[in-house]
Amino acid sequence: MSLEGKVAVVTGAAAGIGKALSEILFKNGAKVVLLDVNESAGKSLMEALNKEKGQDSALFLSCDVQLEEQLKAAFKTTADTFGGIDILCNNAGILNEGDWELMVAINLVGVIKGTYAALEHMSKLKGGRGGVIINTASMAGIKPLLSCPVYSATKSGVIGFTRAMAGASTMAGFGIRFNALCPALVKTELLAHLTEKLGQFTILEEPTRQLLDKYGVLSPSDVAECLLELVTDESKNGEAYMVCPIGNMYATFPSIEPEAK
Which residue of the set 151, 215, 241, 250 is catalytic? Predict the structure, then answer.
């Protein structure tokens, strides 16, 4: 799958991993729609990208992934502006064990809402042209981070949802591939002020920092490079791609067999 001329939507696009995903998609020829609640950072990124290739190559839309109506409006604006949607990166996420309900709402429910809103424009059953949806999960969704149990649960949920949607798409004929990007710890705002974000698990801060020292920390660009493989390789569907400082690999799971009729 070539990215030239494709239309990509990225949530949580203004900073961190989302910014890196947006930049690499743009660099490889896609038109990029940036969704974020941070208007100043989002508009700044849009202006920087459009300066490279001219106006109308990148678009920023203020959007909170918790709000279904905002997501629907953003996807409609994208489709009306660019003629359709080919790629979605459900990337918006937070780390805050002290406000775990908000974390579930953004990290997991936001991914589900974003996916369902995008299906209305991407699914071949709805008149779309198909494409690929990449959900940002985490290594914590495969091997739980003990100081962040709810964060780990949300990312495990993202992986399960991604795999199930991949199988459902194949059986139903959506024409959309689904894959999960599962980075280890990444140097982003999520790791800043770690003490404040562990809530009742601050007692486990030191073991968490020891993990950082032992295994190292990825850069957002490391994660973005792995996105390209999941997007462009049309054989990738239902994959969980583990991005680690010591090497990248695909997670293995039991196969999902269709239910007997």
Answer: 151
